[in-house]
Write a structure and sequence with these properties.
Lambda Exonuclease, Chain A, five-stranded mixed beta sheet, two-stranded antiparallel ribbon, alpha+beta, 4 helices
Amino acid sequence: MERATNLEGEARIAYEARTGALVEESGLLMTDDGVFGYSSDGFVEGDGMIEVKCPSACDKHGAIWTHPEEAHLEYIDQINGGMWIAGRNWCDLVVYCPWLAPVCKELFIKRIVRDEEAVDSLAADLWQFKLLTDSYITALKMEAA
């Protein structure tokens, strides 16, 4: 995680250079009620965002470049949650690894367009999880009393 945090700025610059789009840093976003949060890696244009990943594992990079159509699947819940909380219509998954620059594979970008059904389903699941954890907290407080 520390490596990814250190490389995120480089990844953002590489993304901007490749796409010509400027990224506005945004930070932690919360739902209006303050229940759920999302740490955004940046907003693009009026309705987009980026989610930056900087894995060090060789198998992750191999999978991304050999099966780009599946590259987003590991991160889809985070991406959908981000689009839900940020109110964005698309997200560019940005996978960055400067070690792969000699073979011109240091930057991978895949656009994921908002799927309202998937976003709604995730939001419903998150609310169910919150209700479950709230019930556990209530039960634990009752036992302690």
